[in-house]
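The instructor's notes for this session suggest beginning with a concrete chain rather than abstract definitions. Hand out the sequence below and ask the class to guess, before any prediction is shown, which regions might be ordered.
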Amino acid sequence: MPSHDLPGGRYLAGDLELTRVGYGAMQLAGPGVFGPPKDREAAIAVLRAAVDLGITHIDTADFYGPYVTNEIIHEALAPYPDDLHIVTKVGARRDEHGGWPHARTPAELRTQVYDNLKHLGLDVLDVVNLRVGGLEAAEPGSIAEQFEALAELRQQGLIRHLGLSTVDAGQLAQAQSIAPVVCVQNLYNIARRGDDALVDLTARQGIAFVPYFPLGGFSPLQSDALEAIADRLDATPMAVALAWLLRRSPNILLIPGTSSVRHLHENVAAAGLELPADVTAELDAIGR
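After discussion, reveal the predicted structure:
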């Protein structure tokens, strides 16, 4: 499937043209996103298949593994195609138990940027997202010191664009007073609609909104209404959920993850599912 046939087309984030259907690399690491994968060659095959499909947007983080996912991306895809854009995150680390503690001092953020550059084999990172909250939601508080540290690295030419992850509208506004923001990556899916207002706000401002866990993440989507609609359409609930996200707002970019080439193809095809207007209206009510 060539890139122009990917569902949703493309989206301009800053000066980067991204396919609206991307690929999230989290599942390339071992269980719990910790340690190496069971089958490294299979992980490499998934990444190469994503590029072959025309996907130009790969989402990752150096704390996946840690380091494992970025090293696999480098092994699989370097030298990188000119139109491939890798988006990474900083602001967390992994502890010996596989936890995700914050790592957000300016010094820690600088170290993480350099680590991403090293493990990905890049001289400059296309997009770096500052992760602020936890896995579930934003956490209140100023992010000025952290975002200023990343803005300085952008001025030095190590980062092209800056984004945010797990933030609220106030933190977005604070970051924008320091440097441009091209994307926001928050937990959002058809059943978890707490960021509806932020989706609309970013759309008005021309900022990409990238839902992580678009299919529920560690807790797969559970919705009787979603399953009933999927049955009527002779589709899977996951296909309906992905298709709905693309239609929810033109600034939404998808990054479903998988460690299987077969599932990758299924995810891309699912996002292209046609949703009748009456079905879309029913789906809009889920999670509200």
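Then share the key points. The mean pLDDT is 94. The longest helix spans residues 106-120.
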